[in-house]
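quick one if you have a minute, typing this from the bus. theres a chain ive been looking at and ive put its sequence and its fold in token form underneath. please have a look and point out which stretches look like helix strand or loop to you. anything you notice is useful, everything is just below.

***
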Amino acid sequence: MDTLADNPEWLLVALAPLFLIMMLLEYWFGQRANRLPDSATYSLKELVCNFSLAGMHQLSDLLTGFLIAKLYLLLFGWKLFDIQMSLSMFVLLMVLQDIFYYWFHRASHRVRWMWAAHVVHHSSENMNFSTAFRQSLMYPLAGMWLFWMPLIIIGFEPNGWCL
């Protein structure tokens, strides 16, 4: 039986229901009870926009994955270590992925080319859980995939976690 450690690309799928529950709780106990500030309220228009951007982001990641899969596999041929996925390697992958994501995010604020894609994420006037779905479909063109290359060279198989 496969585990989450065997298929790290399923982490987001596994956590999606929790995130949606948190959104519903924020709406129910925050907005319906008038406990959210005006800058955090939910509106249908904003919700549709955020989810549409999330969908386009996922589609652009998928298309980019098809285009750069050969490059990732070529780099995987030069891997430094033969990593067998286990619970400890899964935890290490999550920590390293978070570190590389930090550098991607920092670069997205500092490098003009990357900021042009990232600004979509900061374009909402409301800040609630749904705002996290506001992602740019231009990340692949900005070079987001470059930040995951070190993980492949280290020896983590590029099987979905890297996009």
In short: The chain has a mean pLDDT of 89. Residues 8-154 form one domain.
